[in-house]
Amino acid sequence: MSKLSVCILFGGRSPEHDVSLRSAESVLNNIDREKYNVIPVGITKNGDWLRYAGTDYSLLPGSAWESFEGNRRAAISPIRGQGLLCFEGDCVVREHIDVVFPVLHGENGEDGTIQGLLELAGIAYVGPHVAASAVAMDKTLTKLVADQAGIPQAAWQLVRGGELQHRMDAIVQSLEARFAYPMFVKPAGTGSSVGVSKAADRESLTSALVSAAAFDDKILVEEFIHGREVEVAVMGNDNPVASICGEIDSGAEFYDYEAKYVTDTSTSYIPARISEEAQEQVRELAVKGYKAIGCQGLSRVDFFVTYEDERVVFNEINTLPGFTSISHSDGICILWNFSMLSAAFFKAANNSSSNVS
Description:
Elements: E1 4-11, H1 17-30, E2 36-43, E3 49-51, E4 72-76, E5 84-88, E6 91-95, E7 99-103, H2 113-121, E8 124-126, H3 130-137, H4 139-149, E9 156-160, H5 164-178, E10 183-187, E11 197-199, H6 202-213, E12 218-223, E13 227-236, E14 241-242, E15 246-249, H7 257-261, E16 267-269, H8 276-293, E17 297-306, E18 312-318, H9 330-349, E19 355-356
Parallel strand pairs: 1-2, 1-7, 7-8, 8-19
Antiparallel strand pairs: 2-3, 3-4, 4-5, 5-6, 9-12, 10-11, 10-12, 13-14, 13-15, 13-17, 15-16, 17-18
């Protein structure tokens, strides 16, 4: 049997660009070259697509990979059957793609945009479809689905960034009337805790709203839940299953971008330090949310489990979790993903649908 051609797509025009590069480094260093013909394609912060010609993937975290000799500008054609187009002067060279693994995080990669391109092109890909990707990326839409599905979650309120300049005082007063301090403020459409703040008073709340508005006009404000941060991987299509629970102790004020990817203060516990009953409830709710949003393939679902009474509270779902060497409980997804990729890619070669698990 001939090798399947797998395009590993990374980078992107997103605040999570650097995380994607580190995730791609892990994936490219671990994928089985005896089974797959690997085609690395990176997207720069400026939006240029490059067919990466190197084999040293330690160059990815940073910008050195962009100037590697032999790189060619490239694009995935939306025309079915065209595959990857690589440009060499006035010539165009086509490379066949069986399946794309979009190792992209956040805007323009995890939000349904790249999935839409691949649907048009008729190319199979790893992860959820367009609609599920878009809903999961927008935290306010995720909250609406969770509410409808009866999944317990923190109380929340939507704030529009465009209203802050003229209605800041009224907005702050409205939030203070609903939530006690501290409260969490998040851009609706970012991941990796980009732009997320914990507001302890009026001054920090005002600052947090302005900070979040720099990333998204939709801002999610949530009540504070005093509990452990617990995560599970969910994988599958019609009959998804949840993994063992992992727990993150951030070692910081909360599990922000710095704690996730810069400092070494956080510690992971697998399994999570919660009762068997709470673990089972986390897994059940994770699968319930995964199905309600319409996810396929893989996702990571995040919860809080309160210290006092082990109440399980849904936080968010991540359709393309980090694959970095320091992604802690995302390692659950990493282990599952690599164990499932062979079956997923094989299915892609024989599936008329453009999505694979």
